[in-house]
Amino acid sequence: MTDPSRQQLICLIGYRGTGKTSTARLLATRLGWQWRDADVELEAFSGKSIRRIFAEEGETAFRDLEEQLLRRLCEASHCVLATGGGVVLREANREQLRRAGLVVWLKADPGTLWDRLRQDASTEERRPALTRGGLAEIEELTRVREPLYRACAHLAIDTSERSPEEVAATIQQYWHGHA
Ligand code: S3P
Known about the structure:
Blueprint: E1 9-13, H1 20-31, E2 34-37, H2 38-46, H3 50-57, H4 59-73, E3 79-82, H5 91-100, E4 102-107, H6 110-119, H7 123-126, H8 134-152, E5 155-158, H9 164-178
Parallel strand pairs: 1-3, 1-4, 2-3, 4-5
Helix pairs in contact: 1-9, 2-4, 3-4, 5-8, 6-8
The structure holds shikimate-3-phosphate.
The site of shikimate-3-phosphate has 11 residues, from loops.
């Protein structure tokens, strides 16, 4: 296993709605670090919403941009990085993340994810349908992606019954125990 304490970087991976962004913000505050959201950085860089990139250029163009930006974001230190849910699809990204820092996989059951995504105002612009949409898409893609998240992560946390504050506290504890 890569030594997760080599760089002061914690990367949060996991499906849409697992709480990566909220947890990144709270964890960064606890550690006195900065935090970044890869989707926000990507939209700022391209000047377009993710929905528009998918519609006008297609998913492959989005994934190319995601890979390119990930390399840059992984150079940060004293930083918590919330990644996009599909970042693990590319092997290059999985390797990049594991090399760069501690990788934490946030997961939750599909019903919980579906409820959270419907309530999140950013879903409309940031989360275009990837297959058929809805709960069926979440069930299908969490199943397909699970081995990829697992292969990439140093630590996994089920967030179904935990608040982002509790998740951030758990990661902080782990970090201090392993750094
Ligand atoms: C995606 C997840 C989104 C965003 C894009 C693609 C995915 O990020 O990167 O819509 O493939 O699961 P969040 O996980 O932050 O919603």
